[in-house]
Design a protein that fits this description.
661 residues; 22 helices; Rossmann fold; 9-stranded mixed β-sheet; 3 domains; 8% strand; disordered C terminus; alpha/beta
Length: 661
């Protein structure tokens, strides 16, 4: 066989081999895609189950779990958009720290002036641009998962309204901050105040993304191969004032163009740029497998320092950001756009744009499907990581509030037990003083009592001169009144402390209590109410009944005996017998009063303790769930953490060929 035939045979075999391989690879890719969809769908079902668990608790707007439910619903929306993006062209994200020429680059890539910040404000949303065969409607994607199709003009009007709401709320935050921070000196307090004001007042649009279909694009538009997503400036995102954080925007990205300010690097501020980059990447959990760095505004470096300055910035950037990106490329969108408008190929080449397109083609488009599957899995993990990181402030407060609840609960029990013991000791001391008076009266007036000739005068004499019943009744009433008042003061103080401890906006409430009243949930300062002494032993528990019982005791068997001893003994013996009888009556009165006081104290403390515990439960449950249900909240986040570590298994080519499951 001659060499030409061999060469031709090899070419035919190679062509046949490549065709079969491509067909098999395409089939495998579809299988990978179906597996990814199934993987995501199962996780969405699990998260929906977590939402249902929390929604069954009938949460109100002020409950901190309400926002967690909304966050979980938004997580589902993100996962659904992640799934949906697999059915669209390769999604290329444009990100950057603040004003780094991102709008100009976006216009250059798209081939049309779409990044008009005055028309399309983007401090709180993403703009998704894709090629459309004809004029089409804009699609508004909401955080709740809903979507709305509108005309371009209608969508722009809604966006402008949302932007005004955002700006008005930002102004209100600043106004309130200036007013309330006047008395604050500590930085941490001011920081907390701003965070509370933003949580309370800052308007957060429910719009997540706007999808814009662009027709009649020039041939050089990148939208013929990619979809482009424009994101808020990350510098704005981090300060919390203008936008949401970067984790809200990256999750659909198949590839990322990360803009770095070349002028900052040329000004010898690389650490500033590196710190900003590291902070963003750490938050979203993103890796460098799908990111290209673009040194924007390189024309400014060139105009100030020439090509030597450009080379210096490029070399410096590659050293500083080694390991962060697939590559670091300079690009001047301004020069490229001028070159296109003037058909100046030299200026276009100088801009660095052709090399950027080549790298986008190499790293993203040529291996689009292969890196896409892996990227979506990484984005899924990043989504969960971002969600869990964003939940950390809630979990930290939740754990702290649990500790506060448990501490208060134990404090209430300890304090009331201590006070209860003290009240009993106070009564003993009070009655001892009375008892000493009665004993003195017994020895002073027993003989007078035995010498009374009119029997009808004796009960009154005993009550007034011996047992001074009116003093005992006053003493009992005063003890009840004073101890009830003291306990109510303690309970009121604890009510206030508990309410402040579980106030959603605690610092605002302290600085300006009236600002909280608008969303007060009906809590009241503790008011003393008559203790309910209803029951079979009500008469014996009430202080008035106890005092009346004292008078009845004096007419009991001992009192009658004391009244009937006049003719049975000698004069001295009659006096001694009277004293003995009166002392027995005093002991009986002491036991009866002690029993009644103990019942009064028990009833008093039981009811106040229950009121305090109920208030503690109410305040805690107002923010979360009942204390005994807290494990259900932890389980939600535990399940999400567990989900983050679940592995997605791609189909291995050899298994696919062999038909292995």
């Amino acid at each position: 066989m001659n060499s030409s035939v061999q060469t031709r045979s090899f070419e035919l075999w190679n062509q046949f081999h490549n065709t079969i391989a491509n067909e098999l690879n395409a089939e495998k890719n579809l299988k990978d895609k179906d597996s990814l969809f199934l993987f995501l769908d199962k996780r969405v079902v699990v998260i929906k189950g977590l939402i249902q668990q929390l929604q069954q608790k009938k949460l109100h707007d002020e409950n901190l779990l309400t926002q967690q439910v909304a966050n979980l619903q938004e997580l589902i929306t993100k996962l659904q958009l992640l799934r949906e993006s697999m059915n669209r062209p390769f999604v290329l994200y444009v990100m950057g720290m603040g004003k780094v020429g991102k709008s100009s680059l976006l216009n250059l890539l798209v081939g049309s002036k779409v990044a008009d910040v005055d028309v399309l404000p983007k401090t709180w949303k993403t703009d998704f641009f894709y090629a459309a065969p004809s004029a089409t409607q804009a699609v508004i994607k909401y955080r709740s998962g809903q979507e709305k199709k509108l005309s371009i003009n209608e969508a722009k009007k809604i966006i402008e309204q949302e932007e005004l709401k955002r700006e008005d709320s930002e102004d209100e935050v600043e106004k309130q901050f200036r007013q309330l921070s006047k008395t604050l000196t500590a930085i941490e307090e001011k920081k907390k105040l701003r965070e509370e004001l933003e949580e309370k007042l800052l308007y957060r649009s429910d719009i997540k993304e706007i999808q814009w279909g662009l027709p009649d694009l020039p041939d050089h538009s990148i939208l013929h191969q990619f979809s482009i997503v424009d994101t808020p400036g990350l510098w704005q995102s981090h300060n919390g004032k203008h936008g949401e954080h970067v984790g809200d925007f990256y999750y659909q990205a198949d590839g990322i163009l990360w803009l770095l300010d070349s002028t900052t690097l040329s000004a010898n501020k690389p650490k500033q740029v590196l710190d900003q980059l590291a902070e963003s990447l750490n938050h979203i959990g993103q890796k460098s497998e799908n990111m290209l760095a673009v040194l924007s505004q390189i024309d400014k470096v060139r105009s100030s320092g020439g090509e030597q300055a450009v080379s210096s910035v490029i070399n410096s950037a590659k050293q500083i950001f080694d390991g962060y990106f697939l590559d670091v490329l300079p690009c001047s969108a301004k020069e490229a756009l001028q070159g296109q408008n003037n058909q100046d190929q030299a200026l276009i080449n100088q801009s660095g744009y052709p090399e950027l397109l080549n790298k986008i083609q190499k790293f993203f488009y040529d291996n689009a499907f292969s890196i896409r599957i892996e990227g979506k899995v990484n984005n899924f993990i990043g989504l969960l990581e971002t969600h869990l990181q964003d939940s950390e402030p809630f979990l930290q407060r939740f754990e702290k509030d649990i500790e506060t609840y448990d501490s208060y609960h134990q404090k209430i029990l300890n304090d009331l037990n201590r006070l209860k013991e003290q009240y009993s000791k106070d009564w003993t001391s009070t009655f001892n003083s009375y008892s000493q008076k009665v004993q003195n009266n017994i020895y002073a007036h027993a003989q007078t009592y035995t010498e009374l000739e009119n029997e009808a005068d004796k009960p009154s004499f005993v009550q007034k001169e011996i047992f001074i019943v009116h003093e005992l009744q006053a003493m009992l009433s005063k003890f009840q009144r004073d101890k009830s008042t003291d306990l109510v003061k303690y309970v009121q103080q604890q009510y206030q402390h508990i309410s402040q401890s579980f106030e959603r906006f605690s610092l605002i409430s302290q600085l300006k209590p009236s600002t909280i009243m608008a969303h007060d949930h009906g809590r009241e300062i503790y008011k003393n109410q008559d203790i309910d002494f209803s029951g079979s032993d009500a008469e014996s528990i009430m202080i008035g009944g106890a005092a009346a019982g004292v008078a009845m005791l004096l007419l009991g068997p001992i009192g009658i005996a004391a009244a009937a001893i006049g003719f049975l003994w000698s004069k001295s013996r009659r006096v001694d017998k009277a004293k003995e009888g009166f002392n027995q009556q005093l002991e009986t009165i002491s036991n009866d009063c002690q029993a009644n006081i103990e019942k009064f104290i028990d009833k008093l403390f039981v009811q106040h303790q229950q009121n305090l515990i109920n208030h503690l439960n109410q305040e805690f449950s107002h923010l979360y769930l009942p204390r005994n249900k807290c494990s259900e909240i932890f389980k939600v986040f535990h399940d999400l953490e567990k989900m983050k570590h679940e592995k997605f298994d791609r189909v291995h080519f050899q298994d696919f060929i062999l038909g292995n499951p």
